[in-house]
Design brief:
Elements lengths: L1 H24 L4 H18 L5 H20 L5 H14 L4 H20 L6 E3 L2 E3 L3 H17 L2
Antiparallel strand pairs: 1-2
Length: about 150
């Protein structure tokens, strides 16, 4: 249990760092996303969940393909796509609905904050772009927290 808490604490710390970087610079550092992705198999071993590595990996790869199509269409940034796929690697199909339920209001609240000038946002003509990293991080940390509350 203590090892699992340490893993979740490290993940949450990286997510806060990512959220800060994306909020300030509109960039998600690849090295941080890579650290999260490479940490997943080790976390599975620490938690005794080695059987999650392959199905979660395949799920994340499928999501990454769809997300890269979204990136190509200009719907999301490349860093957002990579971070979201990494979130799905950790969360897996079993917690994706909870993640989505937490992500939607996070994005809506951030968009409102950006429109009101309370949070960083970029205006491109009539469109507004927001960094999705903080929203993804908040929803992911929410999934981690709910997991601990429900144990």
């Amino acid at each position: 249990m203590a090892a699992s808490l340490a893993v979740d604490g490290a993940v949450a710390a990286l997510l806060v760092w990512i959220a800060r970087e994306d909020g300030l610079r509109f960039r998600i550092p690849n090295r941080l996303v890579l650290a999260l992705a490479l940490g997943f198999p080790a976390a599975c071993l620490i938690r005794g969940q080695a059987s999650f590595v392959v199905p979660h990996g395949l799920f994340a790869l499928a999501a990454l393909a769809v997300l890269f199509a979204g990136f190509a269409a200009g719907i999301c940034g490349g860093g957002d796509a990579k971070l979201l796929a990494t979130a799905l690697l950790w969360i897996g199909p079993e917690s994706t609905l909870v993640f989505a339920v937490l992500l939607l209001p996070a994005v809506a609240a951030y968009a409102l904050g950006g429109r009101l000038g309370l949070l960083p946002a970029r205006r491109e003509g009539r469109r507004m772009r927001i960094p999705l990293g903080p929203c993804i991080a908040l929803a992911w940390i929410g999934v981690i927290g709910l997991g601990h509350l429900l144990r």
